[in-house]
Specification:
Blueprint (H helix, E strand, L loop, with lengths): L1 H31 L5 E3 L14 E5 L12 E5 L7 E12 L2 E6 L19 E9 L4 H5 L4 H42 L4 H85 L1
Antiparallel strand pairs: 1-2, 2-6, 3-4, 3-6, 4-5
Length: 276
């Protein structure tokens, strides 16, 4: 999946670059009025004005009818049209149709088939700007150097895609972590969590109530046991008192017996007296 994502990213970057280059190139063609507005000077025929590897910018909107002697123009070689020449206009040979002849500033004379005859058919444009020595880049970019540079550019794009993927994944992980941390504080606001928390609190309160009631019952049991013990004590004391009473009643009985014995004795004495 990662390789496919990287390849898609590289292809996307290449397409973007290609489209951008194409748009720029078409824009330059429209702006300068020619299919190729840039040329590199490859010979010294125009020294000292044009040096080898200078880049010349061509203005194609300049009409051929307005070309004058002394202008530096770019044209296809009249003999075979297989080479582009940049020379200065030396003379106008005919006006209808307009035909001109050119010559290189460093050349001793004009060359038939190269400088003559030039008509509107061979004309490309007039030199508008000169960019000194920038053409060295084109020499550096000749094969195989240009292929190496293209490979390096593609490699840079691949590395860029890999780096961006890693960065995005790290950003996603960090965002997810922050969201999880922020959600921790919001858990208490969750209704389900609140309900569960309320249930736990109610269970805890009920357990506390049960414990308290058990404690009260235990205290009542202790008090009841104390009461039972006290009642047993009271009963025991009553028993003691009763035993005392019994003893006292025995005493009373004994006293009654004594009295009875005295009475008997007295009655016997009285009988004796009567008998006497």
């Amino acid at each position: 999946m990662a390789k496919k994502a990287i390849s898609k990213g590289v292809i996307k970057d290449i397409i973007i670059v290609a489209v951008a280059v194409l748009v720029i190139w078409i824009g330059l063609q429209v702006a300068f009025g020619t299919q190729n507005p840039f040329y590199v000077v490859a010979s010294g025929s125009m020294i000292p004005v044009l040096q080898v590897y200078d880049i010349i910018v061509i203005q194609g909107h300049e009409p051929f009818e307005e070309v004058q002697v002394g202008d530096i123009i770019v044209f296809d070689r009249p003999s075979d049209h297989n080479r582009v020449i940049v020379h200065r206009v030396q003379s106008i040979l005919e006006e209808d149709p307009k035909t001109i002849r050119t010559q290189g500033d460093a050349n001793p004379s004009w060359i038939r088939g190269t400088d003559y005859p030039i008509t509107e058919e061979e004309y490309i444009g007039k030199v508008a700007y000169i960019i000194p020595q920038v053409g060295y880049i084109t020499q550096i970019l000749k094969p195989p150097v240009n292929y190496i540079i293209i490979a390096i550019v593609i490699g840079v794009m691949v590395i860029k895609q890999i780096t961006n993927k890693k960065k995005k994944s790290e950003d996603i992980i960090s965002k997810e972590t922050l969201e999880e941390l922020s959600n921790i504080g919001k858990i208490k606001e969750d209704s389900e969590y609140s309900e569960n928390t309320g249930k736990l609190e109610s269970i805890k309160e009920n357990s506390d109530t049960v414990e308290n009631s058990d404690t009260v019952e235990n205290s009542d049991t202790v008090e009841n046991s104390d009461t039972v013990e006290n009642s047993d004590t009271v009963e025991n004391s009553d028993t003691v008192e009763n035993s005392d009473t019994v003893e006292n009643s025995d005493t009373v009985e004994n006293s009654d017996t004594v009295e009875n014995s005295d009475t008997v004795e007295k009655s016997d004495q009285k009988t004796d007296k009567e008998n006497n």
